[in-house]
Each structure stands twice: as C-alpha cells, then as structure tokens.
Amino acid sequence: MTQVKMTVNGKTASGDVEGRTLLAQFLRDDQGLTGTHIGCDTSQCGACVVHVNGKAVKACTMLAIEADGATVDTIEGQANADGSLNVIQQAFQDHHGLQCGFCTPGMVMSAAALLKDNPKPTEAEVRHYLDGNICRCTGYHNIVKAIMAASGQDVGAIAAE
Ligand code: FES
Ligand code: FES
C-alpha cells in the first residue's frame, strides 16, 4: 500500500491505496465522494469526470497514486458557498438537462471545464466537447441547452427537441 495525499474540494484527503487503485475508486470508496459515478470503468461514458489541477479528467483512467499531490475537484465541491446550486447546476435543473441523473455529475464537470476554456461556446462546440460523455436518457438536447444557458447565451434559438 502507498499513502497518497491530495487536495479534494479544498480539503486535504489522504489514504493508503494499492498501486492499481483508480482515482475514481479512491474518491468513492476511500473518501466517500460517491457523486463521481462509475458507468463503464473503461474510459467511455464520462460519468466519472473530475478536475485534476483544473483539467477535466476521467477518474477511471487515472491511478490514485498519479493524483498524489494534485488538486482535485469533484461534483460535491461545485455548489456555491451558501449551498445553492452553481450556475451550471441551476441551468441543468431549469432546462431539464437530466432524467435519471447518472451521467449528470460528469456532464456538469465537463461543462465546467468547457466554459472555463470557452466561456461562450457555440452549440456545435458544446456537442463536440460532450463527445466523451454518454447519456442514456435525455437525448442530449436539454443538456446542450443547459450548458448554453449557463454560458449566458439565449437558448430560445435552439429548437425544441
Ligand atoms: S466510468 Fe470513467 S469513463 Fe465511464
Ligand atoms: S440522465 Fe440518465 S444517463 Fe443521463
């Protein structure tokens, strides 16, 4: 076992992990941060997206020991300081960007990374960016709409599904 220590959602998180322990497993099983979902474990679905040193990463593709010393942000750290939904989370609620919610943490984390790099993405850019996030419920339309709305753009022009 190897001890790892990282900053998760602004707090120090440490634990003993095996060499094969994935970051997603460390967050869920060791730290109890079960908002990071595991949908495939093979780097396809995007349900496990977190930010590592500010970049979106699929937490099932990274070993916990690789994140030693890193700054990690998960869905649990996304709400505003007063506990209210942040602008992206609120937009998902307002525009019905979720149904079962399984993909939602990864979608929100991917959206946050996109809007950080590209604050006013086009619809095509949003759809392209979400290439690595699978949703089995919504048909994506309202997710795209929510992300566009979160970026402050008028989503009235986006046709209804
Ligand atoms: S669980 Fe990581 S991409 Fe699906
Ligand atoms: S809301 Fe169910 S998988 Fe996306």
From TrEMBL:
The keyword Protein transport does not apply. It holds the Pfam family Fer2. Keywords: 2Fe-2S, Iron, Iron-sulfur, Metal-binding, Oxidoreductase. Residues 2-78 form the 2Fe-2S ferredoxin-type domain. Signal peptide: none annotated. InterPro entries: 2Fe-2S-bd, 2Fe-2S-bd_dom_sf, 2Fe-2S_ferredoxin-like_sf, 2Fe-2S_ferredoxin-type, Beta-grasp_dom_sf, Diverse_Oxidoreductases. The keyword Oxidoreductase applies. SUPFAM superfamilies: 2Fe-2S ferredoxin-like (SSF54292), CO dehydrogenase ISP C-domain like (SSF47741). GO terms for molecular function: 2 iron, 2 sulfur cluster binding; metal ion binding; oxidoreductase activity. This is Carbon monoxide dehydrogenase. The lineage of its organism: Bacteria, Pseudomonadati, Pseudomonadota, Alphaproteobacteria, Rhodobacterales.
